[in-house]
Fold these 2 entries.
Entry 1:
Amino acid sequence: MQPQFFNIINDELRGSEKTHTVTDPRTEEELWPCPNATAQDFEDAVAAAQKAFVGWSKTTVAERQALLVKLAENLEEHEQELSEILAKESGKSVLFSFGVQLMASFDIKGAVAQCLYYSKTCLEDEVQYEDDNTKVVATHIPLGVVGAICPWNFPVILSNIKVVSSLVTGNCIIVKPSPFTPYAVMKWVEVARGILPPGVFQVLNGGADLGALMTLHPGIAKISFTGTIATGKRVMASCAKTLKKVTLELAGNDACIVCPDADLEKTVVSVASGGFFHSGQVCVASKRIYVHESIYDEFLDRLVKEVDRSYTINEDPTAPSMFSPLSNKLQYDTVRNIIEDCKTNGFNIVTGGKTQNVTNKGFWLPPTIVSKPPEDCWLVKEEQFGPVLPILSWSDEDEVVKRSNLANAGLGASVYSKDLVQAERIARKLEAGGVWINQFERPNFGAFFGGIKDSGFGGEMGKQGLLSYADTKCLHFAKN
Ligand code: NAD
């Protein structure tokens, strides 16, 4: 039976006269109609959230955390259904390395783990100053209604971090998924009805217009946005009109530095995952690989073999694979153009490179590796967000750090070396919100995550991330 989808406002299912469909990235067939939220739906959702906030903001942390456990149980109950929907809309497939499991369920399992982590973690009151005359206690109070504006690459897990952060701190939340991947998020909010008071957790489907309305509405206290740098700048400018709190999680162009003493066996496997897991459609994917010149040829040879072995195109969505089609036509065309640009400029493509008739159907591109393209080309300068990876070489530590640090991005980075002193020294010099040592970039929901420079504004995850979902109020007690 064809699944149905609804906007969820005050726990009610709402259809719409206008719907849109998403193209299945594997088959290029149109999926299911999804109702577009109207301006009135949005107004109703804000009113319901504001009403719900009155009671919800007075609940205790323990009460809210107990409900996060229920949300986790509910997600687990619906894991199969949600994973299948997510696989269809995103092109994700079965993930081999974690047992036979839908790669899409990586999103759902991650969301369960986030719910459970925050069911045990929250902001606590803190004595910030004390002397003989005074004691100052900082306490954290909810902001009100949070608007979550989300991207398409990990639809559930990236929405859920905003949901759990909002809920545990006592806020209400309206989620707007990406119009490229609305289905799993909408179904998830639908199946979660009844767990939280009506109006606390709502979802509306829409694109840039709805996102823009959210950023302007005076009834929304904070926008948590994940997406491109260009949209992030628009969101921030718009939020300024009502002085909303704003968190921006934006694009990265992560450098990965491989030192001459790196354990090549492990490093090659890890760098391949960092670059090609979900076909590079990961904000913190390794996007520029800098390999020391003394091991360059051997590294490249091993990497090509590993990529050709582990990142093959498999059109069967139930087959075990970490490699997917591009999730949508827009991104498919962008990445094809980047590969075409490499060809036009005569760069050395050592594997992949095909951009036409790769398969009969679907937005597939083969994993593509480009050896030593110039530093100022499109592939190196900008985020590719797809399965094409430049492998550059270096000889001097200061020089590679300089090349790694970009003016227009600073999300993640990675360093591979057996010498942990050297690896840490390099990591501390890299201008990024997170640096991973001897592993590819994997955000940890217990650790603060945010980009510097154009890659973000503020951040989420861990206790520090929760601070952006609260106002801090200081209580000054006179002691005598
Ligand atoms: P996008 O900026 O195109 O869209 C993101 C969201 O913003 C969508 O929901 C979209 O409908 C909405 N939107 C579009 N215009 C808007 C406007 N004017 N006002 C308000 N909302 C608007 O990004 P995308 O293509 O969906 O996501 C991919 C990008 O996200 C990549 O660059 C990736 O690196 C980045 N990303 C970053 C992180 C991170 O944590 N830093 C995580 C995942 C993805």
Note: The two ends are 71 Å apart (CA to CA).
Entry 2:
Amino acid sequence: MHTILVTGGLGFIGAHTTVALQEQGFEVIIIDNLSNTRLSVLDGITAISGKKPIFYKIDLKEKGSISQVFKAHKIAGVIHFAASKAVNESVENPLLYYQNNLTSLVNLLQVMLENDCQNIIFSSSCTVYGQADTLPINEDAPIKPAESPYGNTKQIGEEILLDTTKASVLKAIALRYFNPIGAHHSALIGELPLGVPQNLIPFVTQTAAGIRPLLSIFGADYPTIDGTAVRDYIHVVDLANAHVKAVARLLDKKQIDAFEVFNVGTGKGTSVLQVIKTFEKVNHLKLNYKIVGRRAGDITAAYADTAKANTILGWSATQSLEDALISAWKWQKKLQSSK
Ligand code: WQD
């Protein structure tokens, strides 16, 4: 069976995608610099799949180290997750983001082409659309000026891929994620926010666990169903499965264009208050929260038009918001018990 290299494979989405690839019979090699995760995630992956991926602790800014991996293994394709992804941090330290996210991508692509590896799946984001003019958002929606250096590195990353596919044998698929949430049902892997969580769901579960005294809702004056912002929350296992479908599309040479883009979401919009109420209901608890001012850079609403992924990629989300919020809470409780 083919060998797939997963960069950032010990991260939240990377770990779930590694499990999904192994379940489909792929051999997986993980490269991770452990800057935003723990080596113990490798044990969680192995416990689920029964197969320990080959692991290299490598920083993609060191091009020579990447070359050694490609010299040692015949790699059929790469899924590239490794990147810094904290929006606020990117505003405070833009050069760190441009250096890390773009140098890593360029190094990786150069080594891939030097070693005749021509297939890459790129972890992109719905942030490239900014506040889209129409909802749901399809792949033809205009790319808006990025709200943050983080979002800009995703836009530039896609441009780097497009230009490289025009000038080489490279074939690329960019998956534009909406909001990944939840955890594997085993609670053996999940989201590991180190420090104060930026994203909603880890903050919700840490508030429910008593780690945070209260959850702040950033704004209740948006033009939405209840005034709070709307997002497309997709179960991370569904997102992982979209990567397996994209890998198959590349390996089976089913692509129409050398560079293709797919929105990966559920197609449903859910407000912050609706998430909180659903979390309380399915987990039989009460959350302590208060409404505060809007967070800078936030958009009102975003949810995906999933038609292209459904018809061309042959993928659709199967897990419900309830499934995801139950799994998120189960994972949080597991984290507490293993402290
Ligand atoms: C969701 C909603 C907040 C925390 C970010 C990145 C995006 C992607 C997904 C990587 C918003 C509200 C949040 C809190 C809150 N990441 N919120 N209180 O901002 O949609 O997207 O994560 O690809 O690139 O930008 O996700 O989870 O931060 O926020 O009210 O404590 O929850 O205002 O409306 P976001 P998020």
Note: The longest strand covers residues 119-125.
